[in-house]
């Protein structure tokens, strides 16, 4: 199973005030995020973190106090506060075909994205629920899901009710075959 999340901001005390999060302090927030994560993610699941995981820079501390405590196999995308991720070896955009659906994940919201003209999905973060999605896009930050990661099933249910992407090329207007994913 795949899960998607972002904007956890572990160890970032000011995010509680900035985003009006319902926690007394950073320790309570960290523990709630870890508990929520582990209540839905199992050890064999894959979790795509779309940036702003933590403001910490100490990779050993991040591994020991966060990653080792979180269920699942983790893919980390670089956001605006991920100083612990090497610029040279980290990625900003993750593209994958999941059960026949092409998905593009990035910390930042995009107006168009890979295969958006074929109604691919775009999962983004950074706005903490403050930016309306367009077409088949969705903010996957923890602030938009009661501080839980989204499952692929949840995203699928959301996308069923979302409008088509603004740049969708209708199938009857496409030249040749549909792009294979």
List keywords for this structure.
181 residues; Purple Acid Phosphatase, chain A, domain 2; alpha/beta; 8 strands
What does this structure look like?
The protein is an alpha/beta fold. The chain contains 4 helices and 8 strands, in the order E-H-H-E-H-E-E-E-E-E-E-H. The protein has a single domain (2-173), classed as Purple Acid Phosphatase, chain A, domain 2 (4-Layer Sandwich). It has helices at residues 14-18, 26-40, 59-65, 152-160, and strands at 2-5, 46-49, 73-76, 93-98, 101-106, 121-124, 137-139, 150-151. Strand 2, helix 3 and strand 3 (73-76) form a beta-alpha-beta unit. The chain is globular. The mean pLDDT is 95.
- Helix content estimate: 10-25%
- What's the Cα radius of gyration? 17 Å
Oligomeric organization of the protein chains: single chain
**Beta-strand percentage range:** 15-25%
Specify the CATH class.
Alpha Beta
Largest sheet: 4 strands, mixed
Unreliable stretches: none
Query: Please, what is the average pLDDT?
Result: 95
CATH architecture: 4-Layer Sandwich
Structural class: alpha/beta
| Spatial gap, N to C terminus | 19 Å
State the fourth-level CATH superfamily.
Metallo-dependent phosphatases
Number of strands: 8
Spatial strand sequence of the major β-sheet: 3-2-1-8
Order of helices and strands: EHHEHEEEEEEH
Counting structural domains, the number is 1
CATH topology: Purple Acid Phosphatase, chain A, domain 2
Count of helical stretches: 4
């Amino acid at each position: 199973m795949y899960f998607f999340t972002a904007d956890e901001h572990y160890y970032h005390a000011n995010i509680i005030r900035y985003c009006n999060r319902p926690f007394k302090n950073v320790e309570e927030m960290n523990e709630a995020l870890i508990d929520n994560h582990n209540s839905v993610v199992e050890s064999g699941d894959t979790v795509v973190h779309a940036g702003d995981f933590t403001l910490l820079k100490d990779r050993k501390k991040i591994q020991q106090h966060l990653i080792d405590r979180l269920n699942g196999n983790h893919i980390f995308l670089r956001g605006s506060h991920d100083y612990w991720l090497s610029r040279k070896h980290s990625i900003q955009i993750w593209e994958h075909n999941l059960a026949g659906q092409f998905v593009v994940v990035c910390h930042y919201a995009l107006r168009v994205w890979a295969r958006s003209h074929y109604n691919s999905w775009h999962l983004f973060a950074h706005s903490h629920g403050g930016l309306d999605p367009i077409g088949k896009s969705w903010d996957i930050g923890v602030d938009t899901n009661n501080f839980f990661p989204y499952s692929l099933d949840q995203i699928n249910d959301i996308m069923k009710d979302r409008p088509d992407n603004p740049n969708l090329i209708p199938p009857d207007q496409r030249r040749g075959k549909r792009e294979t994913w």
